[in-house]
Amino acid sequence: MTSPSDHPSPATLGQLRASGWSSIPVKDELRRNAIAKIQAGEALFPVVLGYEDTVLPQLENALLAGHDVIFLGERGQAKTRMIRALTGLLDEWMPIVAGSEINDDPYAPVSRHARELVGDHGDDAPIEWVHRSKRYGEKLATPDTSIADLIGEVDPIKVAEGRYLSDELTLHYGMVPRTNRGIFAINELPDLAERIQVGLLNVLEERDIQVRGYKISLPLDLVLFASANPEDYTNRGRIITPLKDRFGSQIRTHYPLEVSTEVEIALQEAPPFEVDGVRVVVPAYMTEIVATLSHLARSSPHINQRSGVSVRFTITNHEVMVANATRRALRHGEADVAPRVSDLEALPASMMGKIEIESLEEGRDGLIAENLVKAAVLTVFKDRFSPERFRPIVAAFEEGAIIHAGEDVTSAEYAALLEAQPALRDAVAELTEGDSSGASVASAVELLLEGLHLSKRLNKESIGARSTYRARA
After folding, report:
1. Is residue 349 left, alpha or beta, with left meaning phi > 0 and alpha meaning psi from -120 to 50?
2. Rounded to two decimals, what is the model's pTM?
3. Integer Cα distance of 255 and 76 in angstroms
4. Quick check: 344 and 289 in contact, CB under 8 A?
5. Which of 347, 262, 255, 362 has its CA nearest to residue 298?
6. What residue ranges define each of the domains in the chain, with the CATH number in brackets?
7. What confidence score (pLDDT) does residue 234 get?
8. DSSP string of 239-267?
9. What is the per-residue pLDDT across 114-132, written as a single tens digit (0 to 9) for each?
10. Which long-range contacts does 300-304 make (Cβ < 8 Å, 24+ apart)?
11. Of 58, 80, 182, 382, which one is least surrounded by beta carbons within 10 A?
12. Dist CA 34 CA 28 (whole Å)
């Protein structure tokens, strides 16, 4: 993220007027900047992948129409990320009346502090500049969220200082007015108590807030975004009808539709894994296996689909796979690291906390997860190779070849194996794509052996960390 540039120079209201700066509603500001990006052919949300033809056109429409928006989708579908990215469509700097708690517009102050300051000093009233990163507010809706959290409440300390309860200056503003002239987001809106949802009605329609019995009305200028899980939306919690009606657009999000998109997300989100003196290379097919695992889980009858299978499932699985490969290489003193099929045995630690397995029998969770991993390996193997390709390899096994594989087998041993079994060379070369390092060769060999086993072309016997592949006969 780039650091903010220096804010404009005007420091008083008079200097601001002389600079020619004009004030526009925040929805118009978002619309203007969105139009400029669309005309320039720039992506509005370059960090969000897989929504280019589905969600993002709907969001662009909502921005152009000036709508408040609710995103409806399961967990891990980048709802919050998209909302936070909207700050990039705000002007970089915005002037406010100096000392204002609610970002008062210098041309139209609404709080008592700002009104009095401008009234007393006129064009000499001081102003401050707020960066767009500070014009965003976010609240995770919980059942104990109160009106005071969102709208505001009397500050007893200010009362104790001698002010009257009727004095507007005794107010402590909540998160919504403090995000005036900006973007406010409420995550998991259905979890917000219905009586608290009522407090948002004026914000969305009349664009003002009212605190307790005060005879004040603060006209707010903000855009409200919310997120909700469909299951919560219909069963566990609900959004009251008048509030739903006030959102201009409801946009349904989804998980990546293609494995290739899931791969892009995994590579985008995976932090660089660096260990001094060790080269880490992740073969494309291993990342593809992890992404395919997520897609298979989203269609599995053994997984609770109402709970969803988050994209974080893919990201953490990828991280654990790479971490296990690195740990193995460090133990063997190897300078090159490449995840292998045997490293996938470490995935249950990252899988089980992110899915809800539905099984009538106790203790089947591990078997279901294991079968999903095997199905992902087999799917990627079949996508890359045709069965006829491996007739020479199978013939070599039928002639008595036996290969040992697993975590305790070093890359050098796999490289020597390739010399002893020339039938594997062409397929390995295709997978390694010119990388002749021992780590890449070892990873390719394990995929070939496991793929042939899962295709019922070879037998496999496993004892601890060691596996033995031999002919089916």
Report:
1. alpha
2. 0.85
3. 8
4. yes
5. 255
6. 13-252 (3.40.50.300), 259-471 (no CATH)
7. 47
8. --HHHHHH-SEEEE----SSHHHHHHHHH
9. 999 999 999 999 999 999 9
10. 300/368, 300/372, 301/358, 302/357, 302/358, 302/359, 302/368, 303/355, 303/356, 303/357, 303/358, 304/355, 304/356, 304/357, 304/358
11. 382
12. 10
Task: Name the token pair of 13.
Answer: 């209201």
Cβ-contact 25, 68 below 8 angstroms = no
The residue among 305, 315, 317, 306 whose CA lies nearest residue 352 is 317
State the DSSP code for 171: E
- The single-letter code of the amino acid at 452 is L
DSSP 354: T
Provide the CA 218 distance to its chain's centre, in angstroms. 35
Among residues 181, 1, 184, 4, the alpha carbon closest in space to that of 94 is found at: 181
- Tokens for 163? 């002010």
Q: Which residues pair with 249 in a beta bridge?
A: 69
Helix, strand and coil in the chain, % to nearest 5 = 50, 15, 35
Q: Supply φ then ψ for residue 132, to 5 degrees.
A: -60, -25
| Beta strand 152-154 pairing with 171-173 | antiparallel
Side chain identity, residue 56: L
Q: CB within 8 A of 278, min separation 6: which ones? A: 326, 329, 330, 334, 335, 336, 337
Least confident range of 44-53, 159-168, 194-203, 387-396: 159-168
Residue 146, CA distances (Å) to 166, 175, 209 in order: 22, 11, 14
Report the C-alpha gap between 347 and 339 in whole angstroms. 12
> Among 82, 94, 74, which residue's Cα sits nearest to residue 43?
82
CA gap 105, 135 in Å, rounded: 13
- The identity of residue 368, as a single letter, is I
Q: Which two tokens stand for residue 121?
A: 């000093």
CA 245/CA 247 separation, integer angstroms: 6
pLDDT in tens, 207-262: 777 666 566 677 889 999 999 987 654 445 688 889 989 999 999 999 999 999 99
User: Contact, 185 vs 80, CB < 8 A?
Assistant: yes
